[in-house]
Prior knowledge:
Blueprint: H1 3-27, E1 35-38, H2 67-70, E2 72-75, H3 79-88, E3 96-101, H4 116-126, E4 132-137, H5 143-152, E5 155-159, E6 162-163, E7 173-175, E8 180-182, H6 183-187, E9 196-200, H7 218-224, E10 229-233, H8 239-253, H9 267-277, H10 284-287, E11 290-294
Parallel strand pairs: 1-2, 3-4, 3-5, 5-9, 9-10
Antiparallel strand pairs: 6-7, 7-8, 10-11
Amino acid sequence: xxxxxxxxxxxxxxxxxxxxxxxxxxxxxxxxxxxxxxxxxxxxxxxxxxxxxxxxxxxxxxxxxxxxxxxxxxxxxxxxxxxxxxxxxxxxxxxxxxxxxxxxxxxxxxxxxxxxxxxxxxxxxxxxxxxxxxxxxxxxxxxxxxxxxxxxxxxxxxxxxxxxxxxxxxxxxxxxxxxxxxxxxxxxxxxxxxxxxxxxxxxxxxxxxxxxxxxxxxxxxxxxxxxxxxxxxxxxxxxxxxxxxxxxxxxxxxxxxxxxxxxxxxxxxxxxxxxxxxxxxxxxxxxxxxxxxxx
Length: 295
């Protein structure tokens, strides 16, 4: 792992998280493995606070726990967004799942993502059989096709190129076969029953450097539109490596697969379990890229 990343995570742990954890454990008496929500602003927007780590070894050669060992971390762009998502969870909807993948974008739209099709197959295998499930890929994974799928389904998995536009955040987009699917495109649609989105794409949860106190990125945009729970990424993702995270995530998310339970409130726990489960397969800088947002 890069030395500069280790230094950053150690500094975040020492200067920020140690005092916070002390308050949570000793003052508020919060039990370990409880959920906590991080609401970063300004320069902290692009820092993986959830991955803060002391990188120390005890006398018995065991590792000192990092933040994700102690608590299950989620992010929220604003407190009001988190409150709104919780209120909307009171409405029960029948779940339907769509997996959208574009591994062969049009000319000039990025390199081929060779692991997308196998990722979609994994997702299909892990979704409860009782859930309505659709897969859209190849020539069908167009801007219009993806928008229609977002409107018609409550759960969505997106595997493709993602791009944050630092100059025009609302032009941040997912790369489809024909045209870009922009954040503005999605925001102009009515998505009344949205519940969960997994954004298996690069740069879907990174803030805008020009507006550090405003959260305008793809993952936050989906939350503002009504998705109660979103998994996004802080930086570039290797699609072959991401597949390991995706498989582990849905394995935990639907481990009672035969019961057909689809509960978006389990996403933070499932992601935490998944990143721990793939430690021998996925390097830390690729594990920490995935973050959970909202409930």
